Amino acid sequence: MTTERYPTSRPAVVTCGLPYANGSLHLGHLLTTLSGDALSRALDTLGQRTAFVCGSDMHGTPIAVNAHENGESPEAFAHRYHEEFADTFPRFDVEFDNYGHTHDETNVETTREFVREWIDNDHVHEKDIKVAWDPEAGQPLPDRYVEGTCPYCGEHARGDECDEGCQRHLEPGEIEEPTSTLTGNPAEYRTRSHKFLRLADFQEYLEGWIDRLEGTENAKNQPRQWIEGDLQDLCITRDMDWGIDYPGEGEEELVLYVWVDAPIEYVSSTKQYTRRVGADAYDWESVWRDDGEIIHVIGQDIIQHHAVFWPAMLRGAGYNEPRAIMASGFVNLKGKAFSTSRNRAIWAEEYLDTGFSPDFLRYYFITAGNFQSDINFTWSDLQGTTNEELVGNIGNFVYRSLLFAHRNYDGTPLADEPTSDEVRERIEAAIDDFAAAINDYSLKDAATAVYELSGFGNQYIQSKEPWKLVDDDPDAGAAVIRDCVQLSKAVAVLLAPFAPEGAERVWDQLGEDGSVHDAGIDAALEAPPAEFGTPEEIFTKIEDDEVEPLSAELEAMVEEDEDDAEDDGAGDEDVESDEAPDIDETERDRIDFETFQDLEMRVGAVEAAEPIEGADDLVRLEIDIGTETRQIVAGIKQFYDVDDLPGTRVVVLANLEPTELFGVESNGMVLAAGEEADLLTTVGDAPVGSLVR
Fold first, then answer.
1. Nearest CA among 681, 677, 653 for reference residue 667
2. Where is the short sequence motif 'HIGH' region located (predicted)?
3. Any known ligand binding at 340?
4. Are 412 and 528 in contact (CB under 8 A)?
5. Beta strands per DSSP E along 88-158
6. In terms of C-beta density within 10 A (0-12 exposed, 13-18 middle, 19 or more buried), how is residue 645 classed?
7. How many CB atoms lie within 10 A of CB 50?
């Protein structure tokens, strides 16, 4: 693993968590997939040789259970969903270099090679353990055939994880008060012999590796509680028929645990890509065997598997280590996790049926907040982000620039002349910001660099007024439009990872050769074609009448689910592996007191307020914070009468870095609560400028 800035001279592989072939995809499943695709595209843009690989997770007890209930073989059942996934991802512009599955021949053989290496290096031992047994059915109960109580937090747990409580991995025999899901009867524990990977062999290595790991803070910090404690050995076998057979003599009844062969699919899928394109184009061994760049994009519920088990598994087989892990938050509805069994979800197919561009969802997911934070999905939030940022800012600037250029010059005026110093320097700054963000694994900051560049373009064209210069000073007018077309091309190059269709549309309208997705970062400063045709709108606004029925349907679904939960007398017991507990959970991603002290929050008073032209939600505020009057942009127009805002007491985050929203600089943030943007204030008469402590 290296710490060189991207792009490096070594090949990289980007992976996202394997979707489980046990049901259709919903938007919660798409968060890490779309993010992984965006990261892979961004690295390509920087010039990093990158492969983006994944596959369907085909093994495990849930698939065996559901296949049996459905009257199918586990292989046929899982393969049907695998095909559905493979067909669905391209419709969201997800371009895997290879998409395989864990039951294919490559992964079966690669998994067995890994385990043989562990055995040969004396990392595997045999131990008698307690295994849940259904006395009525007369069989052992692997993983999801058993439910009970988590021994660590006391919450309801299923099989191999406490998915409703502490989310800790559970070994066979740990669940208390076990119950068989086959018969509903109490289960009993019986002694069985199983194989274990001795994680203690890798403890010293893991303690050093976690200090080298890059990525999100949750992925780097959460595993320390396990790595720096007493590492429990990982049981790598199960009593069941469906899976990859354990490669040992006389062990025909055992199959490998699903969390053994699932991450190994990352290696297998990369192998398959190399076989297709040739080692000269991309060599899987230089990534996985040597010192290539390995980046995993996952949900936060599987951090332990990727930051404890997986690096030990790689080390034990003589493979390279991951350079970075990006762990996302969850996608929720009204603060509650998606649930397949309760039909509390927005399905991938439902989104596609709306006719909304995949760009809208991709951009919304990437810019909705800190990657580690949960996203509380609403159709109105999707609409707001799309209309204000993609349509109102980025699309508006590009379309007005290209339309003016086409009508007055049939393309780019002065195409052989360089751009102005001001615009060239601004594009170079955006490129630097984009590269820095990707090196910091912040997709949101990279997308913000594009948004702010476009915002600069809107401000630039508005201030220069080329429509006046065409008659008064034609040479100056041509120079301004030359700059605006160059800015539009730069926006297309930097936008491509986040909104692939829109960026390609700009590229085509400019008359550029090839695809924007094959263009490197340097193309942002290369001269655009001298001629191009009539442009069209880049993005289409989402109208209220499109969103209102979707919002009503979503509201009805959530209310029905809440009513069902009350009738059941219990909460949801079918939260999938990529789902979170209620939003009220406060135990994840805490900050220390020193970090909190860095926040400068002050009482402010609104002195002036006015809507921002062309923006549906944004208001420009002038706020006295005691030491000075700040200009701050806030998305509150739809909730307040703008004329009533002057005189309102608010709480301002004063030491936030300035940013630009819809072409207007915002120097701070007004704090508000909930989806109705309820402005925070003080109960008493704290003086303006008072610090909030």
1. 653
2. 19-29
3. yes
4. yes
5. 98-101, 124-134, 139-140, 146-149, 156-158
6. buried
7. 24
pLDDT by residue (tens digit) across 139-178? 677 666 788 898 888 888 877 778 777 777 787 778 888 8
Question: Given this chain, do its domains 379-525 and 593-679 carry the same CATH topology?
Answer: no
Per the structure block, which two tokens stand in for 441?
């694994």
**Residue type, position 300, single letter:** Q
Quote the CA–CA distance of 361 and 22 in Å, as a whole number. Answer: 24
pLDDT (tens digit, 9 = 90+) per residue, 429-447?
999 999 999 999 999 999 9
Residue 221 has pLDDT above 50, yes or no: yes
Return the percentage of the chain with pLDDT > 70, whole number.
91
Is there a binding annotation on residue 54? no
Pairwise CA distance, residues 382 & 368, whole Å: 9
Architecture of domain 112-256: Beta Complex (2.170)
The residue-averaged pLDDT of 173-188 equals: 85
Q: Which CATH class is domain 379-525?
A: mainly alpha
Torsion of CA 256, 258, 261, 263, to 10 degrees: -150
C-alpha pair distances (Å), 213 with each of 2, 38, 168, 208, 523: 10, 21, 21, 9, 32
C-alpha closest to that of 515 among 498, 533, 527, 500: 500
Q: What is the pTM of this model?
A: 0.78
Residue 662 has pLDDT above 80, yes or no: no
Mean pLDDT of the chain: 89
Of 350, 349, 345, 348, the residue nearest 330 (C-alpha): 345
> For 593-679, which CATH class?
mainly beta
Annotated binding residue at 484?
no
Could you tell me which CATH number the domain at 12-101+261-332 has? 3.40.50.620
Ligand-binding site membership of 150 (annotated):
yes
Does residue 16 have a known ligand-binding role? no
Length of the chain (residues) = 693
Whether the per-residue pLDDT at 388 is higher than 80: the answer is yes
DSSP for 506-526 reads HHHHTT-SS-GGG--GGGGGS
Q: Where are the domains of the chain?
A: 12-101+261-332, 112-256, 379-525, 593-679
